[in-house]
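haha ok so turns out i had the wrong file open the whole time. this is the CORRECT one, sorry everyone. sequence first:
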Amino acid sequence: MSKFTAGAWIPAVVIPLIVVACKTIKRHYDAVEQELAVPEHATLPAVHNTVIVPMSAVNKSALDALAYARALHPERLVAVVVDLEDADVDELRRRWRELDFGITLEIVESPYREITRPLLAFINEVDDRRRDDVITVILPELVVRHWWQQLLHNQTALALKGRLLFRPNTIVISVPTQLGAATDGVSGRAPGARRRGPRRA
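then structure:
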């Protein structure tokens, strides 16, 4: 008590705060464990998957993401492009028909030149049509040679990831396309490279 004003008040305040913080953390972990607990005789739930692939253009990065999306065998696969008014949408549609991937292409209007908000509105609209589906958003991303070049790309993808992180019933997957190297699509293999089988003992 005699040293209280000389600094003895610090442990008197800090120690109770540490105890309260530890108890709060413990309650959090207990609640998480209880919510994640699997009941007896549990079965895997049936998952109906709707996959949405946002694109900025019909390019190799978009094709890598679409190839991966198709490999998931979803019930529904949709490619979506946000129309920023300066893009040649008619040419994009013509090119899409020419490629003939058998994938639905949706054009979302954006009168205020925004990308993230119109995409989120489109995802919500798709989700409202089929409430029993899991929405999987597959984002094409560029991987460049130098770290500082990375700052010039993928900003829209990062913003969309941040907005979708807390969205219920939503999975976000990034499909990287490495620039500066001749690769075979999303596999990242050089053309003609052989796949290695499992190593035998």
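DSSP finds six helices and five strands in the chain.
again sry for the mixup
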